[in-house]
Every structure is written in structure tokens, then in C-alpha cells.
Amino acid sequence: MKKILQLVILVSWSLGVFPCMNQTALAQQNNLDTLTKKINQHRKQNLQEKIYVHVDRPSYLTGETMWFKIYLTDGSLHKPSDVSKVAYIEFLDRSNQSVLQTKVKIENGSGEGSLYLPATLNSGNYIMRAYTNWMKNFSAEFFFHKPISIINTFKSIEAETQTTTTKYDVQFFAEGGNLLAGVKNKVAFKVTDTSGSGIDFKGTLLNQQNDTIVNFAPHRFGIGNLIFTPQPNHQYRAIIRDRSGKIQTINLQAVLTNGYSIQVADTTNNQLRIKVSAVLSNTDEIPGAYLFVHSRNIISNTGFQMLRNGSATFLINTNDLAEGISHITIFDTSMNPVCERLYFKQPENNLSISVKSNQPQYEPRRNVKIDLTSSLKQVGKESNLSISVFRVDSLSSSSRTMLDYFWITSDLKGTIESPEYYLSSSLDVKEAADNLMLTHGWRRFLWSDVLRNKKTAIDFIPEYRGHLIQGNVLKQDGSPAYGVMTYLSSPNKIINFYPSRSNKKGEVQFEMQNFYGSSKIIAQAKSKNDSTYRIKIKSPFSDQFTHRPIPVFKLSTEVTNQLLNRSVAMQVQDIYFSNELAKVKSASVDSSAFYGKADETYFLDAFTRFPVMEEVMREYVPGVLVRKRKDGFHFILLDNINTGVFNESPLVLLDGVPIFDEDEIMNFSPLNVKKLEVMTRKWYLGQLSFNGIVSYTTYQGDLGGFPLNPKSVTLAYEGLQLQREFYSPKYDNKNQRESRLPDQRYLLYWNPTVTTDKDGHQQVEFNTSDIPGEYKIVVEGMTRDGNVGSSTSTFTIKEVNN
């Protein structure tokens, strides 16, 4: 029956009549609707996040502090994301070893922080990467990556030696993916060196008879394209010759005699022409093609065409395409993806940011006012901006911005050389951008997963309310232990503790709200007797990496004096202003215990001090009945709500650490205890319930020397980082300006939280330092609707002769 229907369709199509048009069109539309539904469902089930980090400068010396602003958005619309509340930042060396790590609080899609660069770091180029816990479910390619140069002036600086090799990375990419016999094919190419930079070369395409088919050369950054018509049963190879005369040969992919190819080109009337060519040896296959176009998993265009003489053409109005990168995918009539390529539409609806200083030149220690104006072409909106002002030097010239990250690098695989170029106004940028699309095909899903409605394995949940500490509960033989109640505590004057029951994999996780700074954490399984379980705490940082070439670190002798001057200035600032530079903002945390206000509170210094805890409990704490039995002490709490007593023991805490044996707390010296709180009612925490709470607090919140269970796990752990305060001196009067204290700041101003008013305006001000030279203002930011923008400006501080 299927073959008869196909025959009817083919004959009718050849005769120009279509008696089954309604039914066929309905079936085609059903296929389009079904795939559209599956893509939309896949996008909802696999929420994507993007993260961008604005750093205050392009290069650093050890001993300096890096300041940064984090922008977290959803992956589709680029709007600020309110899902994840924690971001992870790492510095990686060439071997993907993490040399610096930190965790930063995210609120309303943004966060801020700083990193002190210790003198233990070697001079070199590093990769800064950032991600969320949720992003660890997907490829590390989706993490934010940025190259950073760090120079250690306290160690001898040695330039890295580049591995000598005659091999270049040479890649060819047929448009759409297939090299189809008898059809004119566009083939893009990319040739890079070991650092990932494109090279200049001349190339020749040869057939298997060594005849020259076409000569070619790169257009930009080692990337270009060539066009030829491959013949069946032919093998083609390319010969690459660089400027030094080195030759490298590479075979192109095999030529297909059965399959599909596409050719995409712009027309003169704002349309995109997508020509589908096919050579089909399977006579049972209906000669047709489905078109799907999506941008960041949101579909913009769909369609179906029958093939006439082996080809079909789709025309799309470019105004219907989303800005940025679109994926064009062709499916055959069996709904199998057969061709795909990317198309780039220059974004026009960017956030425009105007930056203007009140003077082009200043004397040292003078006030600078900068007017910021942000607007969109349609309408002005409030913007969330970050601004940095630093002295320009020759140490680094990185110009990558928020714009090229969101529009280019975050949606392409691998390292993109000079991504900012593709958003410039250069005359040849359109051709260069199309070559880039042909050589960096990438999407955030597999079509096979979408068609089969396959869900991504979720191993890491979003940190929606705070930092998650994860671990495993293991038996003595190392196998996972199921259903074991565990507790994690961080001894503190603020009483918090976090329970978790292990799942079938033995996994536990503790949601640490308001957990800042370096602390000691204690994890233990609930047991009054000796526990046979072992708890292993996992690192929250990702153990997946992607290969990204890091440029070879080189320093010319011309920058020696600049390095010396900057290093001396940094050390002078540390000597004279160490107290100001070390200031940390207080974290906004709730100082009350997790159980709120206690029913009974006792400050033991207000009573006669007893040397034994038993006397304290019996004399001063009527809400707790102390009973001594054969197996030791027991606490029995009064149940004031029901006017009775609880039959089982209460939860006993010392600085938030649960104590499962009352004998241990009774042997503890009450002279170390400052406060005792009692909850004389049933208390619920998640799925757990406690027959009242008895909570002891020591003077320092550090357990006061209490001996912990040797089976417990005690670790020094870094929570969310406490934020440093950026120091900027004021020179409001003559006496301040004439102060003999030196001002050697190279970074004049950093503000990660500049918000424009409803008209898009804001003004910031700061003071210049004693260091003359050119200074650069860099402003980046976005609106709540996801429009991003970047802008720069400069001014100078003139040298004053005393």
C-alpha cells in the first residue's frame, strides 16, 4: 500500500496534478507539527543557561586583585536567569589543572566578586572558566571560557617554548555536511597552528589523477571556502603550503553518490535562498525535503518541498530569522536529518551604551565624572551595567566583549579567533562570518535525542536556594549505603544544620543557605553507637574539561620597565593601604537559629557556675528532665503544647553539630558554654521531625574543644566568597590632594552594580591617581529583556613636574 501511494504521488507530481493534495499536505503538516512539538518539549526539559564574566582588566600581576561581574542568562532569550543562585569560577593551566577556585552568589541573574592572585602562580596564560551546578549536566563546551595573562614579577619570567611541529590542524567542511557527486559543492576550510591561530597559506585541490581542480587561499584567520563539483568514485586531496614553504596534505571526505546537500545564499531582496539537492538511489523514498530553522532551540521557520529533477528551493525572508546564529536543518520524508548548516544574521537590536568623561585630560588626584547613557533603538530601558577604568599598557590587548560572547562564541564549538571582528562594520565581515558558520557547526542537542524524546540525565540539580554540598555514604566494603540519615554542620554562633537521607546510589546532598567564607564542616551518620558508614564529600567543581589551545606566553623586552613600574606601584599600595584593600563587606545573613526563637533561653553567665553539666541541667533547665539509666544519661523534654512529655530523645546540638549520645554532652564542661536554648515542642525540618531541641552554644561557636566522633568527616571548606570592598580614595579638598601618602593605583575604578534610570542615564565619579598615562573606560551590561551591549572610551592623566 505504501509503495502504491508513493507511485501515485510521483506520477501525479510529474503530470502536474495532485488528487491526494489535501491528504498529503495534511501529513506533511503533521510531520512539521510533530517535530516542532518535540523540539519545544526538549527545550523545556533541558533548560540551558549561559554565563558571562566581565573582568576589570585584560592582564594581571600576582599580588593584584581581579574584580569581576557575573551575568547569568537563559540560553534561548538571553534574559537574566533566576534559576541558579551559585556560580563557580576556576583558573586552569595548560594541563587543565585548577590553580584558583571560588564560588559566587548569584541573585536576579548577576553576581560580583574578586580573586586575589597569589605569588605561587607562575607567569603564563591561563583559561578562566565559569559555570553553574546545573550546567555540569551538559558539555563543558558550554561553560564560559576566557584567556587571562598573569605575570609573576617575583619569579624569573621565562617565555614558554612552543612545541616545534610541521603539522597544522587542517579541516575541510562540506556545506550541509555531505560532498555529493554531480552537484556543485561549497567546501569551507580552516587551517590553524598549535595555538589555535589561523595561518596564511596557499592551497591546491587535486583529484586522484593529480589534476588541479581549484586553487584557494584563506579569507580571514586561516578560514575560507572553495567551490567545485565532485565526481563519483573520486578521491580528492588538498595540498597546503605555508609562507615558509612547508607542505601538508590532507584527504577530503568521501564523495557520496546517494544523499542530500544544501546551498545557502543571500538574495538581493532580503531573502535567504536554500537550495536542496539530492541523489536518491532508493526508489521507495519519496523525493521531498522538510526544512527546520531554529535559533537557540526556538524554531523560526518550517516548510516542505517536493524535489523536482533532484532539487528544491526554499525562500525565507531574513526579517523572520532571529538575530545571531540560526541552524538550518533538512530532513528527508522519513524525518531523518540529512543536512545542516549555520547562518549568521548581524544583530541590530543591541544595547547602545554611550560613555563620556567630563574632560579628555586630568591632573593627578582630580575628580572624574563619567556620564553613561544606555538605550535601545526602539525604546530606552533600565540597564544593569558594570564599569572598569584602568591604565592601558602593552601587557595585553584582549578586546573580547559581552556582545561577541552572546552572539558568537557561546553558540559555537571550539576557540574563535578574534570573535569581535564578526560584529564589526568591515566590508568583508559578512563573507568572513559565513565562513565561520561553515567551519564551526554546533548545537546543544542531538537530533536523535529530540526525535526519541530522550531526556538528559540529570546528575546535578540547580542550586535554587543556596550552595549544595554533595557526598556519598559508603559501607565498609565501599558499596553505596541506602537510606542512611546523615547530618552536615558548620560550627558557628549561628545555629544551622542540614540533614539528608542517602538515595539508592548512596548519594546525599545538603542545601547550605547563607553559607559564606572559609568554615569547618562536619558530616556524620546518625548513630549513638559506633557507625560502620563512611561519608565522602564531593568537590563541587566540574571534573569535565574541553580542549582549548592556550596561546604561548611571550613577553618582549620592551615591557620590562612597564612590569617593574606596575609591580612597584602594586607593592606600594599594599604597604600604605593594606587595611583599606582588605575590607570585606558583611554578608546579609539571618542571625537567628534555624528553629527561630527558642521557647527557653539560658545565658549561663547569669547563673551560679557549676563545674558539671548534670548540675546545670537539673538546677536551671526545668524544660529538660535528666534521667540516668543503665545505658547512660537521657534527656526527656516536656511537651508544652500537649501538656505532657516526649517518649523519645530530643535533638541535641552543640554549635549546630548534632550530638547523638547524651553522655558526651554531660561530660562536656559547662564553663565552655555561653548559651543554652530549648524548644519544648515537636519540631519539623523537611521530612524529619524532632521531639524538641536542646541547643548549646559555646563562646566562639567552635565547639570549645568538644571531642568529635572519629567516624565523622571534618573538612575545611570554602563557602560562597565574602565580597571585598573596592578601595578608591577621595580628594575633596586641597589637604587631601597634597597628602604625602602615594596613590599608585593602575585600576582607578570598578563598579559592578551600575543601574541606569528609566531614561537610561547614570553618572559615576572617582578620582585620578598619581600615575600618568592613558586610561580606558570599559562598560558592559544588559537589560532585563536580554539586550546586551559594550562600550569603551579613554582619557589621560598628564604628568605633573614638581
Describe the structure.
By secondary structure, the protein is mainly beta. Helices cover 12% and strands 38% of the residues. Strands 2-8-7-4-5 form a five-stranded mixed beta sheet. The longest helix has 25 residues, at 21-45.
Oligomer: single chain
Count of separate DSSP helical elements:
9
Q: Kindly estimate the percentage of residues that lie in beta strands according to DSSP.
A: 35-45%
Spatial strand arrangement across the major sheet: 2-8-7-4-5
Biggest pleated sheet: 5 strands, mixed
The residue-averaged pLDDT reads: 89
The unreliable regions are 1-19
Global morphology: globular
Measured between the Cα atoms of the first and last residue, the distance is 99 Å
Question: Which structural class should the secondary elements be placed in?
Answer: mainly beta
Radius of gyration: 33 Å
Write out key terms for the chains shown.
mainly beta; 5-stranded mixed beta sheet; 802 residues
Secondary-structure blueprint of this entry?
Layout: H1 2-15, H2 21-45, E1 49-55, E2 59-61, E3 65-74, E4 86-92, E5 98-105, E6 110-116, E7 124-131, E8 144-151, E9 169-174, E10 185-192, E11 201-206, E12 212-216, E13 223-228, E14 237-242, E15 247-251, E16 259-266, E17 271-279, E18 288-295, E19 298-306, E20 311-317, E21 324-331, E22 337-345, E23 352-357, E24 361-362, E25 367-375, E26 383-391, H3 402-407, H4 429-439, H5 447-451, E27 467-474, E28 485-489, E29 497-501, E30 507-512, E31 518-525, E32 534-537, H6 560-581, E33 600-603, H7 613-620, E34 624-629, E35 632-639, E36 644-645, E37 651-654, E38 657-658, H8 662-666, E39 673-679, E40 683-685, E41 688-690, E42 693-698, E43 713-718, H9 734-737, E44 747-755, E45 761-767, E46 773-783, E47 788-797
Parallel strand pairs: 2-8, 24-47, 37-42
Antiparallel strand pairs: 1-3, 3-6, 4-5, 4-7, 7-8, 9-10, 10-13, 11-12, 11-14, 14-15, 16-17, 17-20, 18-19, 18-21, 21-22, 23-25, 25-45, 26-44, 26-46, 27-30, 27-32, 28-29, 28-31, 31-43, 33-39, 34-35, 35-36, 37-38, 39-42, 40-41, 46-47
